[in-house]
Structures
1.
Amino acid sequence: MSEFKQLVFSGVQPTGNLHLGNYLGALQRFVALQDTYECIYCVVDLHSLTATLVHDDLAEQTRAIAAAYLASGLDPKKNIIFNQSRVPQHAELAWIFNCVARIGWMNRMTQFKDKAGKDRENASLGLLAYPSLMAADILVYRATHVPVGEDQKQHLELARNIAQKFNNDFSEHIATHGYGVEMEVGEERVNGFFPLTEPLIEGPATRVMSLRDGTKKMSKSDPSDLSRINLMDDADTIARKIKKAKTDPEPLPGDVGGLEERPEAHNLVGIYAALAGTTVQEVIRDYGGRQFSEFKPALAELAVEKMAPINAEMRRISADPGYVDGVLREGGERAGAKAEETMKMVREIIGLLDN
Ligand code: TYM
């Protein structure tokens, strides 16, 4: 019996500067996967319309994310790199998923609640339907694995729910056309058209926290620039932000358990581990019992050593927008061909006339 072919998909929104959380939670992971999986990495420009409709520089921001992908080490020959809006099949499948998903599912999304705030009636319909487009991004390629940071976990559960409901609701049509694929779901083997995608939320930095408050996620929207390290920060800025990072007065603990009630210490140790390509345990083994006055300079040095080359490469690549556009165009063509293969089958399964 056939199984779904293993395929990785992930995306980043072109809104504002990328920060260390995006790098450690996503981009660095994307790079690690390119040697073992076939991968598709997308700049999700349509998603960026959900919170802010009118952008002055959407094209620039889109290029900047693509440049960050390339500067982090993604190979555009090995992987497909493109921007979402070039492949209209994403939006087409999202519409179908809007009819599969239930409003109640969307209303429960914590990110929707956070972003919509108190005035939910005034949020865009796109913001509510955001996870449906995200499910379409993944499933239009029938991708099996999605590397993301911790904050995207709930959206990926919803993508599984959408896939499962589509598979159930159309099970007879899927069987009639012979488009079902066998897959393992828990202990059972079931047949369906869309895979139940696995999130890959791995490594010591799946949730990088603000440098000013270890209980808040590092985020593009935090008003304090000191809360985050941006991919475009220069060496002095990186070192200064780490020096100013909030900490408690105790030295680092002698074991990992000692980090539990210490969010700022935990965060900095996690960042160190992810940058060094090691584990929190290893970092504690080396730095347990040491003061922050010793640990912070070591972390700053490591962060500069790892981030400066990416920063320089991003500037080099961004100086040639023609090159970046070419990568996105070619990636879009390759992605479009794959997406159309899926959509042809989806249209047949649903019964949409398409000939
Ligand atoms: P976005 O653009 O907000 O973030 C891009 C990636 O960065 C991760 N991330 C973090 N990881 C660790 N610590 C942090 N503080 C941190 N902040 C952000 C995010 O988890 C994400 O992996 N909805 C997605 C984009 C998207 C997508 C998709 C992702 C659209 N379609 C399909 C995967 C598959 C988003 O807004 O990510």
2.
Amino acid sequence: MVRVLGIESSCDETGVAIYDSDRGLLADSLHSQIKLHNEYGGVVPELASRDHIRRITPLIKETLSTAKCQLTDLSAIAYTAGPGLAGALLVGASVAESLSFALSIPALPIHHLEGHLLSPCLSDTPPQFPFIALLVSGGHSQFMKVTQVGEYELLGESVDDAAGEAFDKTAKLLGLPYPGGPHLAKLAATGNPKRFHFPRPMIHSGDLMMSFSGLKTAVSLTVSQYQKEDYNDIAASFEAAVVDTLCAKAVHALKLTGIKQLVIAGGVGANLKLREQLTSVIKQQGGSVFYPPLKLCTDNGAMIAYAGAQKLLSGQLPVQKESFAIYPRWDLQVYSTRYKS
Ligand code: KG4
Ligand code: ZN
């Protein structure tokens, strides 16, 4: 049995959770900084770091108390070491490394995207290895082949904007608050997705590469030609274009690899239209789709605690321990070499 405290502080959410390999998730606390950054229309890195500093210790105490456990009951401390905002990452990293030193238990630097792509394993119906993960967040749109914990192969990604970034930028064009994705989805629910035909970029490229920046330009042109009362139709038509593109690529990913299980991870995975349509097209292919529980789609400590526990259970420990580091830009495949079995 292992029991791991997970700390996430890579962007605008302080997440702390405790995962127990026998009993599952014991506690999962989150403090979102949405209100703090709202008036600036996006994340202000320095404000993010300062808020993580304020929140992290009370959140750890709260999480331990909810889980009814002590620091001395923990097997390891897992934390997001990258990619993300340098100052924000440093908060989680220094707290986790200090705790690990004080308690003489391992500190496990976790790749943020590994956390996301393993998060569907925390649902009641987890996928089995191998699976294809479609990772759609504010910073990434990638297809990964996941053979086992720590074995990831990048199959394709966006050549420009990430899907979440496209949602956020389009929402801004429509005058919606940050973070735009959920607001845009809400507005889209009242609109007609067939009214405007926006491009489905690279849909016939034959590979798993994607592009979302042209789509945003097309929306921008339309916005300038229409009135506010048309914005719900623009939002719905934009959402349909992103969802169609991701669905077509996902079907292609399963065909190319022969793998039948698709996992959706990252913030955009909370989009209900995407969930609905993907489930239906993948089913038609004889495959199945796995999602994290809705609240674990966006950033959280649970996915980091879970990834840390899986590392320990599979006997993987981080190499070199004289110092710790954070990695604001970090390739998932390079990250795998940070661990040895
Ligand atoms: O994974 P995440 O919380 O943070 C990153 O690691 O980037 O993803 C955040 C992204 C944002 O771009 C946000 O707008 C988007 O996920 N998002 C959504 C929805 N909920 C969050 N996009 C579309 N529809 C949603 N319901
Ligand atoms: Zn994330």
3.
Amino acid sequence: MEAQNRKRLMLFSGSANPILAQEVSELLEVELGGVELGTFADGEISARFTSSVRGADCFVLQSHSNPINFHIMEQLIMIDALQRASAKRITAVVPYFGYARQDKKSMPREPITARLMADLFDTAGADRLVSVDLHSPQIQGFTRKPFDSLTALPIFTQYLATLEGPLTVVSPDSGRVKQASRYARHLDAEVAFVHKRRRVDVADDVSALQVVGEVEGRHCVIVDDIIGTAGTIVSAAELLKDRGALAVRALATHALLSPPAIDRIKNAPLEETVVTNTLPVSEEAAGLPNLTILSIAPLLADTLKAIFMDTSVSQIFMGENV
Ligand code: R5P
């Protein structure tokens, strides 16, 4: 007697980023699994898988895009349903991991939402997690489950490989210097960083105050994980231009692009802004003449294949060691 679903990969998509899920499924040569997602009149989410998942290796892909609470809850509900339907293993694939920015208490009486998220995935029944460029690497340790934290670094560095002239990779704040150094190593570039100030009473108010490192007469590439309101990259770009940079580009894995990001980028002294599709990019943003979107789908597909085949993901898992 042979177990039917043993070693069967099933990929399911939440409603947040169906285009990315489709791309991943084509690369894996696996059709997206059937799931009926809906809402009750009061807004409660419902989910029902349309075929058996018993014994299957299930992957639930969902980015935590706006409306973020809805998309998180949808993914958790899908995972709960899979667990109750006897899936053999459930992997939460979260290209953009929401609530990761509150990863410690910076002020008294604040939450640690990144830990809460990890607990929610545990409770729902996720056996492992996959994400890309987590806001901070220690979030991997917020759960006891295996957590593959991927990086878009190879995608970005490959894209920039043709850039000629003296290059400086710029960290937009002191906390990302390590990350900028990794990029600089791959691009054979110098490193600089911007000293930024964020007002504690206004969440998205950012000013770039000082730059440390060689930027004059050089191509500068600002590397960040997230573009939220674009205050960070735009104020850094303005400062770098002011300090004599030849041209300024910004790279960020997660294009949240919350208002007024699009207007800010439109009017910024940025040659180019390069992001990935971990989050769906609106038509308006995609229409920006200086915005380039690189696909994360091959990285995700390779990772899911490796997890499914029980082969090493270390070639892909290029976190701290790169
Ligand atoms: C901050 O710690 C993050 O790495 C990003 O720099 C920040 O989230 C970007 O936000 P905004 O675009 O709103 O300045």
